[in-house]
Fold these 3 entries.
Entry 1:
Amino acid sequence: MSDNQIIKVQNLAKQYRKSKTNAVDDVSFYVNEGAFFSLLGPNGAGKTTIISILTTTLSKTAGEVSVAGYDIDKQASQVRSSIGVIFQNPSLDINLTAEENIRFHSNLYGLYPYNPSFKMMPLEYQQRVTDLAKVLGLEADVFKPVKTLSGGMKRKLEIIRSLMHKPKVLFLDEPTQGLDPISRASLWGYLQEIRRQEKITIFLTTHYLEEAEHSDYICIINHGQIRAQGTPAEIKQVLLEKYIVVDAADRSVLKSELTQKQIPFSGEGPLRLDLDDTSIQDLIKQIQTPLSRIDIYNPSLEQAYVKIIQERDQHE
Amino acid sequence: MNNNFNAVITIAARDITKLFRDQFRILASFIFPIIFIGVLGTSLQANLQGSLPYNFLTFVFLGTMAQTLFQSTASGIISLVEDRQTDFAQEMFIAPISRFAIIFGKILGETVVSFIQILGILLFALIIRIPLDLGSLVRLLPFALLVSLMGGAFGLIVMANIKDQKSVNQLFPFLIFPQFFLAGVFNPIKVLPLPLLIASRIAPMTYAVDLLRSVYYSGSPSYPFTVLFNPLINIAVTAGIFLVFFTAGTYFFVRNEKNR
């Protein structure tokens, strides 16, 4: 076990009080410092349960969990100092302005003594708010009441707030939920920027695969159990079947050639040839029959993901 | 810098800021006391005064003052349920501070809110010329604080085990309104039939009301007619209720939040 692991989860289980089954069932994974980690799964897979346990707001039933080197039960306060959290639902006070929400947070975390106005706060605070608002494109709205902000702006505000105490890990629980595609795309840009500037570890839960695809490491979860984990490339490699689909003007000639050369194929119409370890080039070179069609099937992670979730569901 | 102290002040200040942005709450908070003092007090005074050895309006004013401090802080604490429903509670509960600091900050904030409401009632009392001794009123300050703190702890223990705002809103009046009468906010309770006597001694508001009256009337000829217990007894009971409800309420609230 290397010291580079900022989050360690071993055999984590959670059974809710009124439930007979485990919402999270024997889950183990690690997150390296500075990584962009995605916990990916459909609704109800157990993502929010895991993030709630890791952020000390929910008790676990069994297992060992440490965040930033601290045990989540015995050193909850140190864990809380080391993390920033963006919850699934915005946790802003809509009766206050954006800056008042940030100030509340900063005072609550003991960064600066309480002061009743922005101008009375130390310059360091004012500078940090201004800088972060600039990075997130929220400069013009910092002093507006939260009530008047759009969904995307609220999310940005929460990100600014969660970064005030310079956490080591930023947890985001489905942060783009309810955002339009444009806000969603811009939020990702900002997050990458923040990650670069603040050198922070990002722990994301999402059910959008295209969001997870940008991460360093993905853990796919369903029914409280890990279904697959690895880098996006590894997940693709291990779990995706690659094949080509070919056809010829005279299909029977093609079929007999393939049979003769012991190249396995399937299908009656266009023929499917599994690639396994052979490269496309080697495979095509062996075929003499003039081909009328070659389709390379190189599925997206999205298709692989849907398949993983569906296949395992059917087996149960 | 002590983080927990700073957190208490921060949480308290939020509730005060919110009060000033919620004019409706300020207005609504004056309605009850004005009815109690202005309507009930004045009419009872007019009909009973001849037979009473003390000024009835002063008596009702002090009762209403204690009741307002108690009820305002209690119902203010209930807003923690609202914070929980709007998810703002999460923001407080992931902060690296003591859970007791969070709850105490909330109670302290609502205590200050209740004091602001008292100013309005006092103004009304002066306008309708209720005879009040200013020196005795100033002497009430630390005890008024204790009454508010107990009210906050009472609100906490009520809401600690309840999940949603609707249930709290339905239950709360049942727990508060009977106490108006049992605690003698505007009715003398020197003499009570046994069942009411027992209920009256169980109601926490009784000690809140009697604490303020026992301090205010201390040394005055009205004391034996208006006060139930020695101020020291009232202080001990009020502080005791606060400590027990605050400790148990915080424990249950946090446990219910985390052990779902």
Entry 2:
Amino acid sequence: MGAPEDDVVRIREMVEKCLRLVLPLGSSLPTHDEDWIESGLLDSMAHVEVLLCLENAANCPNAFNRIGSAPITTIRSAIEAIRSVASSAAEGQSQRTERDTIRIHRTDRQAGILGWGIALGTKQVSVDQVEHEFDLPKGNLKARAGIESVCRVAENQDEVSLATIAARKALQMAGISQQSVDWIIGASETFLCFPSLAASLHTALLATSTCRVLDVGGACVGLLNCFAVANALFANGRVDCILIVSSDVHSRFLSPGRVDGEFGGLFGDAASAFVLLRHVGAGDALPYSIAADIAGCTGTFSSVLRIRLGVDGTIILNFEGDALAHAAIDRIDRVISDLETISGKSRHEASAFAIHQPNPRLVDIFLRRMKLPHEKVPVVARLHGNLGASTCGVALSMALDNHAIKPRSERGPIFVVSVGPGMLWAGTVLE
Amino acid sequence: MSELLISEITRMAAGLCVIGLERHKEGYSSLRPIPHGLTAWPQFPYYRADRMSFDLSLSPGVTEHHCEDRRAGNPRLVDSVSEGELVGCLKQAEVADSIKNLFGCDVHPSPRGGAAVYVNPVDARRSVCGCKINSVHFRFYPEKIRVALALESGETLDSLPVVDRDWFAFAKRWDDESQSRLAGFFNWFIVDQIISSPIRFARIGLARPDKDGLCWLMLDSLFPLPKAEWVKEFK
């Protein structure tokens, strides 16, 4: 966290924001030392909601049911409690509670994104063709989901070949040899083989034998999970360069006859790659780096999308499109709000939003709800389909193409947000 | 006269809310007896698993989401069954295999940033339903308890207010203890007792619409009910 006085101002804003959410519309905020309960401002149910909201906003789950001393019933006590939790976490003291560990949400910005690249399936397939293949009524996908085409791999392409192309582009842009990579972290929801995606990519790139590999799950959240893992790995002072890759070939997995077209027809094939390097640049030459990140899992909505393999290799799919759409939009909205609080950066300052795009219609709804201009969200799903973890990757890559070339003082942050089955959610602010 | 097997006694602002099971050919269904001229029972000197008789009549203001409401008078204790028998009857009443099926509609995340969920009253088809659970986690706040439940469906309800009178009274005896000690005891010893019980079962209720018109989910009952012998395990 920043200077102590900055913290107090930021935390106070956080506390007031949580109070405003619970107080009746038009009520004035309590004074610094006004007791929320005794003054009759909040009933005990609303009080719990404020505490939960604060835990959420400060990204310190279970923190306030742990504090056995003075109850948090004033703005002052709330600020002090949050500062105490944050300072304990920063000092590395044990803050383990029954379910969670306090997380330091503002990161140390140890590494910057120096290179990025994407690889799209080379076949552009029109939505008419997709509807025909899945035996859907003409106009179904276009009208309901807003998709115009999807990109699919050619016969000679797969997850590894896409990942290799994206990785080479990213390494080239960063000016880094594959021999300098300390870790390769991969995410794929369709590459269900061993050696895994990261190991296969290690071989394909001819990385050194001491370059470590790691595969990370999370489906559509996979890329953001990779970023979180990479950021943590940089705590090891000997790690200087990490290559992150996402790659998915949905067209061979979610194919006609295996899943309904209203689900399978939404997906395309692609890969994305990012090179993170320790301590590079200064001042206006600083590259984008992770300024804040949050993530979690909300099991309440775990049943709206479930995919598993049956014993005979068939795909068993449970897909409640409307419920998933509502839950996803709500969650993305909330993640962005929380990222604003944590990072101190407003959505209106952002240069771009690299958000997951299950389909273009949801992006439209999201933009309307958030009152954001269309040009701030790179178009991915409309032309390429839902690319799984690579949706965020391709969107982020496009955003970096536009904004990373600008001096740091002339560009805004990039919000990267995704949701996935579980319901997993994650958000990162790059600055 | 109608006979109800008392299944829920829950705390609400105006007093106590009571729900009982009415037997019919196919099993049981839940009814909520409400005293004439009141919105809740100021006192209710009976217990869950008591079989009681009431004079019941259709409540004039009954809504589709709180379709169980009945005006009730002349409550009389008939006899009692065991807790296990009560849970057996609850499993023959309203039971859902998913969150969506609890009230026949989707739930929505709190717009206030917490992990509580609500339903829109116009969507809900009932206001109480049972479900099988795999795990539970307690959280304590001043004067309030919240639980997280893992349902057998693989879904979770992460922040349910506990309105169950018995669980609340059980925890209340440790009012002077720190919340962290209390949470430690509940989330290790008590949760072990619940998880290992053959009658573990939860009943989820819907609160009446709040000032914003939202019906919040809450924990009406958690079985097994707290046991006096567990108290001595608190160290």
Entry 3:
Amino acid sequence: MNRNLKQKQHKQSLLLDTSVQIDKFNPGSIDAALRKLSANYDLYTSYFVKYEFKTGFIRSLIAFYSRVNIDGPIKATAKWGKSFHPRDLKYKAIMDCIIAQCDKTIYIGDKKKYLAQIEMVIFHLMNNFMTELTGIVGDFSDDEVIDYEILTSSDFAEFEKKINDRKCIPQAGFWEKHKIELVLLIKDKTVQTSKDFESVNKYLREISEDFKKSDKYFHNKGVGDVIIAIDSPKTHKLVSLDSAFQTYCKVLKKELITLSSSYFAH
Amino acid sequence: MAPQIITGDNDLTPSTNPEFKKPGEEETTASDLVMRDRGDQLTNTREVIDKIQSTVKSTEQPLIFRTYSAPYIAFYTNKLLDEIIVDLAEWQKNSTEDSLVNISNIRTILDKNSQYLEQRAENRILLAFLETIFENDNWETLKPTQIGFIKNLLNDFKNGEIQGDALKEFSRKLYSNKVNIIIESESKSKAKAA
């Protein structure tokens, strides 16, 4: 038993970012590979990742649920396909896969049953957010949006109200605490010159001049990946599907695993 | 033009309205064939329809045209209005995209309460107006000022400041508000086209 404990203590820790936490629910994507990783590593995520997961993935499905209730399943699906961000289409595709896995049939012709299925998926996602994970780390604990439990459709309105009343997650304290990392990032040549980081660079510069600017909507939303990278403990390797983290992790001297299909082939 | 009264799913029963037909009640040709194939002793479509109708009637919730007392209707109308006003206030405060849950709540409230709302003339007008929010996707183009207008009128209605004859004026205002929505959206699309 002592040997087992010792082995457990020596396991390396990984921190899963938002893209991984979402894709783990995509059947046939990285879910099986993550299960394998969990045998060799202790998997963690952060409170901020949970915030992005809830205000992105979950909120998108709540919006779809509402549209189905307003317009009926067929019209809502047609509108969803036409007018929404590709990310929302991806979220709906994952939802459909989960429904098909659990129920075999997607009741698109029956509003009540379809609503129940969407509600079931949202519950499933919330209930399994921590599946395979050892724990949750980082700043932003005690945030009311992160802490708010969404179990049934009766929780949707209060959840939306909490988001709408605030729009942004307060970040000024975080940047005050991590001003050294902030300076490192804005001084980095790649962040300064690459087109890919143009807007992030602008937001980071403005935040460095006045931390309160991080609570402006676009600044707040635009620096999410940077926060995840900074917030990840040095003892953890960050795991992401997004290659943008390579630059942040290099500057911050943090280890990164960028997941792709080739990663799992070895 | 008199306002159109929009009725819910549960307002008329087969027994009270001879023209009442549930969707699919007469579309039994396929079932007819299946039943014949199964060897049922049904020799014509009429018999199949009768059999299906009797099954539908016996398994469905009884479609009873319930009568509600005046205090019951008054109490629940006020409660319903309170809930809708809260949702409208949230909708007015935030964008339509950020208020989908509130709009969905209004839809649910109307669906659940249409039965007793249809029993009094003034409530029927109220219900008809609230339903127009969802007609022709009007809810997607409503502006905060228009949402505020609806909210204020509902408040007045709830507080008894609009009653009897005034209710018709209330209804007219609501419908003229709807006309404005259409005119505005038309002029917008014309401007876009130009």
